[in-house]
Design goal:
The protein has about 130 residues and is mostly helical. It has two helices and no strands. It has one domain. About 95% of the residues lie in helices and about 0% in strands.
Length: about 130
């Protein structure tokens, strides 16, 4: 499962949790309303139910909008990280090539030093 899919699933779960919470709050409000007298409940029930639904809907829609914004931001950040990763991989390959070339040059210089030391030794013996 990709990280983008995982993020979408998690965001969906959060949105569902907010919806369930809103539903439970509306249910609790209805239960409190039921404790009122029958006359008061009859007069205000429709208003409370509609108000609770509107509040729950507003909360849910606001949460969804926020989650969509965060998902967009996360996707942009992931794209930036992918581009940065590609750039770093290119730089790493360049450094590896330079290191290989430096090692080859170093090995060549070591061989030259060995030859020069031998030459110096022969010159000292001859001289």
């Amino acid at each position: 499962m990709s990280s983008a899919t995982l993020i979408e699933v998690l965001l969906g779960l959060i949105a569902a949790a907010i919806g369930i919470s809103s539903y439970l709050q509306a249910k609790r409000a209805n239960n409190e309303q039921a404790r009122m007298t029958i006359a008061q409940a009859a007069a205000t029930s429709a208003t409370v139910d509609a108000g609770a639904f509107v509040r729950a809907k507003d909360i849910y829609e606001g949460a969804l909008a926020t989650l969509r914004e965060e998902l967009g931001t996360t996707r942009r950040e992931m794209q930036d990280l992918r581009e940065s990763n590609r750039s770093l991989l290119t730089e790493l390959e360049k450094v590896r090539r330079e290191t290989y070339e430096a090692r080859a040059s170093n090995d060549g210089l070591k061989g030259e030093i060995t030859k020069l030391r031998a030459e110096i030794g022969r010159l000292k013996e001859a001289g």
